[in-house]
Amino acid sequence: MTKATIATSPIEGQKPGTSGLRKKCRVFMGAHYLENFVQAMFDGIGGVAGKTLVVGGDGRFHNDVATQTILAMAAANGAARVIVGQNALLSTPAASHLIRLNKTDGGVILSASHNPGGEDEDFGIKFNMSNGGPAPEGITNAMFERTKVIDAYHIWQGDPVDLSTIGTSVLGDMQVDVVDPVAAYVDLMQSLFDFPAIAKMIKGGFRIRFDSMCAITGPYARAILEDTLGAAKDTVAHATPLPDFGGMHPDPNPTWAHELMDEMMGADAPDFGCASDGDGDRNMIVGPNCYVSPSDSLAVIAANAHLAPGYKDGLKGVARSMPTSAAVDRVAQALGLDCYETPTGWKFFGNLMDDGRVSLCGEESFGTGSDHVREKDGVWAVLMWLNIMAATGKSVPELMEDHWARFGRNYYSRHDFEAIVSEKADVLMTALRGSLDGLAGQNYGPLTVEKADDYAYLDPVDGSTSAQQGVRVVFEGGSRFVVRLSGTGTSGATLRLYLEKVETKALNLEPQAALAEIIAAAHSIIGIEGFTGRTAPDVIT
Ligand code: VG1
Ligand code: CO
């Protein structure tokens, strides 16, 4: 058992994206790849000597091996203590909670989130700060700069730590606490939601289907829904986390959670359906014959959060990512709440929550959460919906109809064009940016462009700026589309086209039909087919 310093050299491309560093698993398994990045991560936060960290991941292939490497490197870099989930498992929101609960200096989360898992699929790693939230851009940039000059890393060489048993051990001079990944999180949920009311609703025959998609939320959802709230024993489907997610693509949207969708659209559907992603921070909400778009879910939660005990005094304010629909803005306006717009990625919400400006945040990409942690939180969103339904006695379709009748409806859809050759996507974006100045006043079918720009963000709390966060084209009357390239993919480029139309009269149209004119205008302005050869998206949400 010795501490070793291993010589290495920089490896290209270790730049964190929207949510940490994500690459193919085999890339992470390459010589020095993970070690280089972990050392750069530790250096980027000013070292870990004397610090306490939380470590855990979503259980995908390589999670166990990578956790041992991180523990060995934390020990050799002088960390005082590491709190790690049993069997190296922690959902992203549970990790965020443990960082805050134990007042640690931060944590390392292993996940490629909604991307598939397995030896030939994706792996990822990110650092969360002492507030429990993802490292801001200033820190991830510092980490990236370190990866370019790294020449050595420190690692403890010895037997792996037993992570299968809850308890305390040591690795060199570092204390290792293996904890139950679920218990503290269940306590937190119980402090926020009206569990007796939800249990009563379930006892009265209310049926739930939660699809964990063979990813991390299985143990959490079972402990809460089945063991605590009394839901039937088969409520949680695909409840055992598997290294390859059982071949499932753990992205909770109508395309990838099609088993749940089929059940909810079929005869004898349960009263409530929900799903979560690989690391448990995303959620999809669906009622019988009633899919709820994530932007609408955020708005419904904003309008009803006060029904949950943890939010009974009302929200401090709300925030959404720029491409998310403005449905929540309408609620904020009606309730007199401040409403913030941020770039894509949860890291931008942290400052607003820490500063007490907002307590509810959301993204169109199936992410909703509050200031109970500093990550989006799939199980939290599910419990919020259950709490709202228990308090109002209304079904999902009834809640949606009431909501649209009161606030109007923002028809919304996202079209993803995946695996585009990166160079082609870059040429497309450059051309689009170059065309923005001439767009105002142009007509596309019945639509007239009002303004077009490339979104830039000024953080009102720390004054930092983030440029080129998505091109947006707004039409007269408020309809709009947004285009940006994904920052979470691991091969080629994914073009995301976000479409939105505000409607106060025709409230029951099919979203793709309601958006048809905007879709046509977007294709004509962007020239997707000309640049990429693609005429139709791969995934529509
Ligand atoms: C996507 C989503 C974004 C989300 C991010 C991380 O990023 O669009 O809203 O915050 O994934 O979510 P991008 O850059 O691919 O559009 V998760 O659940 O993958 O951590
Ligand atoms: Co996720």
Give the gist of this structure.
By secondary structure, this protein is an alpha/beta fold. It is built from 18 helices and 27 strands.
Description:
The chain is an alpha/beta fold and 541 residues long. The strands form six sheets. The chain has a seven-stranded mixed beta sheet, sandwiched between helices. The mean pLDDT is 96. The chain contains 18 helices and 27 strands. Helix 2 packs across helix 3, helix 2 (33-44) crosses helix 5 (137-147) and helix 10 (294-304) runs parallel beside helix 11 (327-335). The structure holds alpha-D-glucose-1-phosphate-6-vanadate and cobalt (II) ion. Alpha-D-glucose-1-phosphate-6-vanadate binds next to loops.
Widest sheet: strand order? 2-6-5-3-4-9-8
Mean pLDDT figure? 96
Distinct bound molecules: alpha-D-glucose-1-phosphate-6-vanadate, cobalt (II) ion
Q: How many E-type strands?
A: 27
What labels would you give this structure?
single chain, seven-stranded antiparallel beta sheet, binds cobalt (II) ion, 541 residues, 33% helix, 26% strand, binds alpha-D-glucose-1-phosphate-6-vanadate, alpha/beta
Walk me through the topology.
Layout: E1 2-7, E2 21-24, H1 25-28, H2 33-44, E3 52-57, H3 63-76, E4 81-89, H4 92-101, E5 107-110, E6 122-128, H5 137-147, E7 152-157, E8 167-171, E9 174-179, H6 183-192, H7 195-203, E10 208-211, H8 217-228, E11 236-237, H9 258-265, E12 272-276, E13 283-287, E14 290-292, H10 294-304, E15 318-321, H11 327-335, E16 339-342, H12 350-354, E17 360-363, E18 367-370, H13 378-392, H14 396-407, E19 409-420, H15 422-435, E20 443-444, E21 447-454, E22 457-458, E23 465-466, E24 471-475, E25 480-485, E26 493-503, H16 511-514, H17 516-526, H18 528-532, E27 539-540
Parallel strand pairs: 3-4, 3-5, 4-9, 10-11, 10-12, 15-16, 15-17
Antiparallel strand pairs: 1-7, 2-6, 5-6, 8-9, 12-13, 13-14, 17-18, 19-26, 19-27, 20-21, 21-24, 22-23, 24-25, 25-26
Helix pairs in contact: 2-3, 2-5, 7-13, 10-11
Bound molecules: alpha-D-glucose-1-phosphate-6-vanadate and cobalt (II) ion (CO).
